[in-house]
Amino acid sequence: MIRLIGIDPGLRFMGWGVVDVEGNRLRHVADGVLATQSGDDVPRRLCDLHEGLMTLIRRYQPSEAAVEETYVNRNGSSTLKLGYARGVALLVPALAGLSVHEYGAMAVKRAVVGTGAATKEQVSMMVRRLLPGAEIKRADASDALAIAICHAHHRASAQHVAMGVRMA
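Below the sequence we write its predicted structure tokens.
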């Protein structure tokens, strides 16, 4: 069994989700959102995200992390701030000794729903279906679980390739 944490970066809300993977079975462990105060300055908010992620990694002790790659917004300032949060999302698991993997939004949607053009609602519905019993309260947490599921699928495929297993 291996434990994965998926992280959906955001400066205001950073989604996270933890799943256990055994073979091709997925089990929901926990999910949630790290929220920062929009009135705080950016360095304080980044510290809050750092502390929150460190606490989650200590509590759930994942073996690997998966982080969503960000896209460029039209608003340069928003893109830059999102990049700061993404930096924290990449740095914290790396500092904890985890291998960190990155996936674009379309790859996550393809892995979970089967099409890169899936809507957020379709992704959320499939996450709930793949992880029975998960009571996801925010879309950011659902997205983070989808990232973890995506990594679980990619990880399994890479293992099959490494072992020389031919897929039908």
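The helical segments are 42-60, 76-95, 105-112, 120-130, 139-163.
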